[in-house]
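With this grant's support, we have paired protein sequences with backbone structure tokens. One protein thus recorded is set out beneath this paragraph:

_____
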Amino acid sequence: MPEDLKKELSRPYGFLFTDKNSLINFLLLNKGQRIITVGDVVTETLRTNGIIPFLSIIDGKTKRNIKIDLKEDHLIKIRNEKSTIRLSSIKTIKDILNENYSKKSIILVDGEEDLLVIPVVLFGRDKDIIIYGQPNAGAVVIINNQLTRIRVKQILEKFYVKNC
């Protein structure tokens, strides 16, 4: 990821929820939609409130001590370095978000998960609810659609490719 994108990507790209009860109530009103979380805190918040996302992407690192029970879900381990989106990470996310995949899953990232919101948006379905953490602010909710995909694709086109 180019350095100049960091500031652009630090802004919330969706609805910022600063109160966890408002977030939970919003999700309960939108039952039936697939929920995808990116980040340890948002994943734990939903799970402790009885909402199990279709897909959660976590790295096990956060400012707080987070405990997520990984026993019940299909666990997939990947490697994804900071400020990077590995092609193998994109493929894994694309495969899980494929229409034919029905297992609820957790991707445990060795490295950093923050930028994996990008392939989630690109390969998610319309109306998927994508939630990611906004450090020191709350949780950002994106209701996926074609316009969001176009914007994210424009951001991804600014990245450069290198061998890892």
Q: What stands out?
A: The chain is about 30% helix and 25% strand. The longest helix spans residues 87-97. The two ends are 13 Å apart (CA to CA).
